[in-house]
Amino acid sequence: MQSLIIHSPILAIAIPLLAAFLTPLIGKFSSKARDIVVIVALAVTEFLVLILARDIYASGLHVYTLGALSPTLATPENFMIPVRIVLEVDAMSVFMGIISATVALAAAIYSISFMKRETGGTKFYTLLLLLTVGMIGLEFTGDLFNMFIFLEILSISGAALAGFRIRYADAIEGGFKYLVISAIGALVVLFAVGIFYGQYNLLNIAALAKVMQYTSLDQLALVLLIMAFGMKLASVPMHMWAPDTYSVAPAGTTPMIYVASQACLYALIRICFTLYGVTMNTSTIGWIIIVLGVLSMFIGVTVAVKQTDIKRLMAYHAISQSGYMLLGIGVGIAVLADPVALAAYGKTAISGGIFHIVNNALYKGLLFLTAEALFFSLGTRDLNKMGGMARNMKYTTIFFIIGALAISGIPPFNGFTSKLMIYESVYQFSPLLAVIAMLVSILTLASFTKAFQSAFTGPALPQYNNVKEVPKPMLIGMGILAVLIVFFSLFPNLVVNTIVNPATDSLINQAGYISSVMGGL
Predict the structure, then answer these.
(1) Burial code of 383-400, b = ≥16 C-beta within 10 A, e = fewer?
(2) Nearest CA to 263 among 418, 90, 139?
(3) 142, 181, 366, 439: most buried, per Cβ within 10 A?
(4) pTM of the model
(5) First-to-last CA distance in the chain?
(6) Pick from 299, 277, 140: which is nearest to 213 by CA?
(7) 16 closest CA partner among 100, 89, 86, 99
(8) SS3 letters across 444-468
(9) What mean pLDDT is predicted for residues 188-202?
């Protein structure tokens, strides 16, 4: 078991990557065997991430260097070679890894029945596995160039999945927009990586953080990285691609593409806290992120209220919810250089933002799946053409209610807990920002009340009288996320103390990260 834990960082990437190459071969002989391979590969990935998390929470950061004689030891050769795959997994990295692996597994199970209606199932599962590789690789890498490589894997596979149903014109449009945005973002990231390499002849995050001088070029690189990852996160004003992409992505891939955007948020957080830390002007950068968060919250929810396409409604709420994360993280960055304010409310703001990441992945993922279930059964995404589905789709209705109450911040659901942490901490920083955040929650509740009334209450239209509940694999996929939402709602303190606070501590402790990676060198 110890050997498995040691190699788990690379195995969590290698196993879905291997399965992605095996899937086309197995799919030629048996679609059922192909489905089993995909589910088993993602289940093993989930197991590896969980045992890695348990060890990290007990003993601290893991370093794994491919090609080194001693891959787990901190030696000069492990980080001085410019281009090398170095994995540096701390509590924040593995926190994101758990989210990615869990949502990927639920999405794959959900997609089994859905893909029976579609052609090209083998290509679909290959892309799904590659998207998982891109997310986990982005979260586990400790090297800026390899962060760019995994970002490309994530982006290309995500664009292909978004445009998978090519018989729909809007699917091609959504996939193309995602590809264009991803290409621009990746080029900007690569340019920033070139700035670092040109100055310091280094690409390792810890090594760069140790020698960072915060020159004008470093400031330019920081601005570029905020722009690139903010664009991939769909932060306002760089959000226009998201509704067109999320609304057309098939089956369980919409939650995955959304979690991929959260992986880009992780990259932004890692850059700000670990690479730059207090070296940068924390107040200015913090306020930039706060402004992006507030704009995303307010514009996302106000546009969502008037949507009649249920998946576009979900997409705009995804933009809005990302604003809460940016707000909490932004306040933490703004006071990062002030130990008193950081201890008083800054750390709580960061923890609230991080807790909201996992909560949002669960309930937003569940809501995307319920929207796709309605489309699967009814053949339409138009809320004006739905009604009365609570009678025919009881389980989907229950799952929708759980997700809607959670995203609206209704007690005692998990969304309420993370939002409350953000409200209380942000209020101490700026009462106005806290009031705006509360107003957004009220509008969110109004929006989902309208959606629930349109889709599930009232009399069913005559053509939907014989509609049945979606197949069991789709219910299982939704059920996994729903059970986790309920668990997080019942035991929020356990979740915060076990996985959220360690992630926050690992971000704040830049010196500890550098020391753990470089071994005091």
Answers:
(1) beebbbbbebbebbbebb
(2) 139
(3) 142
(4) 0.92
(5) 30
(6) 277
(7) 100
(8) HHHHHHHHHHHHHCCCCCHHHCCCC
(9) 93
